[in-house]
């Protein structure tokens, strides 16, 4: 890739972007599914915030959230992968994927708190900034991955760059163990990326 | 019993986070202490408050919204501070700096 001349490189970049865009358009959900998914999320938020189960409040909330969901259907669900029936997807997400992610992140957060306490007491730090590659391309997926990396032990995301259809993350690592990109990626990302690839594009 | 344990754990984590902000050498390592310890400590204190409070379940679920907002916003803000500090010109005390290699 580094030996390609300049004019060819630009052309190749535009071509690859086009292919990525077409793939992305083909993997989108149909619009009524997007409306229903957004409506479910907004309705759950309304029930928790209003904290009442009376018929009057529920009807008002359903009407208003349906109106908002019809307008803002691309805001939350633009990057979700297309697979399966919508009810199946909702149930899978609510009862399998979300608890899995919460359990993984809870134990990682506990471990990272203990690790920061250990670093504060012994001051055995050896910081460095490394560059790792991810297989995710959508904005929501990269955002959630960067936030999860910030909460995992000993790492902090600095910046994201997208070049030639590949996404790279710059990570500040407080206890530098390896400079190899694949090994560092495995150590930093862990199984969160596998989880995110099932849901997001 | 569990709620008292969670409360004590959260406060100990917050104390270690404050110590880390005082003891670490530069901005980026201090941000480690700030983001992780604040998120973990605040979330465990919120969980203990959920267990302690005697109120209907829907009212207690509002605390979960608060915990979700903390868990989303805190890493985002630390990321923004780190990137802003780097762009402003604060040099990190590091062994290897691949971000400076790619953005000269």
UniProtKB/TrEMBL annotation, chain A:
<keyword id="KW-1133">Transmembrane helix</keyword>
<feature type="transmembrane region" description="Helical">
    <location>
        <begin position="59"/>
        <end position="78"/>
    </location>
</feature>
<protein>
    <submittedName>
        <fullName>Cation:proton antiporter</fullName>
    </submittedName>
</protein>
<feature type="transmembrane region" description="Helical">
    <location>
        <begin position="35"/>
        <end position="53"/>
    </location>
</feature>
<keyword id="KW-1003">Cell membrane</keyword>
<feature type="transmembrane region" description="Helical">
    <location>
        <begin position="90"/>
        <end position="110"/>
    </location>
</feature>
<dbReference type="InterPro" id="IPR002758">
    <property type="entry name" value="Cation_antiport_E"/>
</dbReference>
<keyword id="KW-0472">Membrane</keyword>
<dbReference type="GO" id="GO:0005886">
    <property type="term" value="C:plasma membrane"/>
</dbReference>
<dbReference type="Pfam" id="PF01899">
    <property type="entry name" value="MNHE"/>
</dbReference>
<dbReference type="GO" id="GO:0008324">
    <property type="term" value="F:monoatomic cation transmembrane transporter activity"/>
</dbReference>
<keyword id="KW-0812">Transmembrane</keyword>
From TrEMBL, chain B:
<feature type="transmembrane region" description="Helical">
    <location>
        <begin position="63"/>
        <end position="82"/>
    </location>
</feature>
<feature type="transmembrane region" description="Helical">
    <location>
        <begin position="6"/>
        <end position="25"/>
    </location>
</feature>
<dbReference type="GO" id="GO:0015385">
    <property type="term" value="F:sodium:proton antiporter activity"/>
</dbReference>
<keyword id="KW-0812">Transmembrane</keyword>
<keyword id="KW-1133">Transmembrane helix</keyword>
<protein>
    <submittedName>
        <fullName>Cation:proton antiporter</fullName>
    </submittedName>
</protein>
<dbReference type="InterPro" id="IPR005133">
    <property type="entry name" value="PhaG_MnhG_YufB"/>
</dbReference>
<keyword id="KW-0472">Membrane</keyword>
<feature type="transmembrane region" description="Helical">
    <location>
        <begin position="37"/>
        <end position="57"/>
    </location>
</feature>
<dbReference type="Pfam" id="PF03334">
    <property type="entry name" value="PhaG_MnhG_YufB"/>
</dbReference>
């Amino acid at each position: 890739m580094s030996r390609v001349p300049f004019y060819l490189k630009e052309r190749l970049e535009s071509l690859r972007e086009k292919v990525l865009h077409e793939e992305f358009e083909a993997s989108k959900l149909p619009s009524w599914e997007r409306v229903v998914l957004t409506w479910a999320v907004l309705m759950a938020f309304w029930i928790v915030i209003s904290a009442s189960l009376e018929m009057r409040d529920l009807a008002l909330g359903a009407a208003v959230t349906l109106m908002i969901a019809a307008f803002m259907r691309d805001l939350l669900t633009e990057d979700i992968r297309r697979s399966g029936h919508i009810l199946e997807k909702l149930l899978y997400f609510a009862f399998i994927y979300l608890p899995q992610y919460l359990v993984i992140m809870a134990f990682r957060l506990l471990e990272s708190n203990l690790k920061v306490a250990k670093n504060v007491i012994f001051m055995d730090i050896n910081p460095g900034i490394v560059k790792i590659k991810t297989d995710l391309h959508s904005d929501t997926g990269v955002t959630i991955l960067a936030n999860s990396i910030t909460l995992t032990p000993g790492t902090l995301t600095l910046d994201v760059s997208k070049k030639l259809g590949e996404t790279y993350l710059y990570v500040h690592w407080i206890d530098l163990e390896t400079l190899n990109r694949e090994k560092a990626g495995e150590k930093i990302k862990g199984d969160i990326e596998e989880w995110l690839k099932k849901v997001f594009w | 019993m569990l709620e008292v344990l969670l409360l004590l754990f959260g406060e100990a984590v917050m104390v270690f986070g404050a110590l880390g902000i005082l003891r670490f050498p530069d901005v980026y390592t201090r941000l480690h202490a700030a983001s992780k310890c604040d998120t973990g400590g605040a979330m465990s204190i919120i969980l203990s408050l959920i267990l302690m409070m005697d109120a209907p379940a829907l009212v207690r679920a509002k605390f979960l919204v608060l915990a979700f907002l903390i868990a989303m916003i805190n890493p985002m803000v630390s990321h923004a501070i780190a990137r802003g500090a780097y762009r402003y010109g604060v040099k990190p005390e590091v062994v290897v700096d691949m971000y400076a290699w790619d953005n000269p």
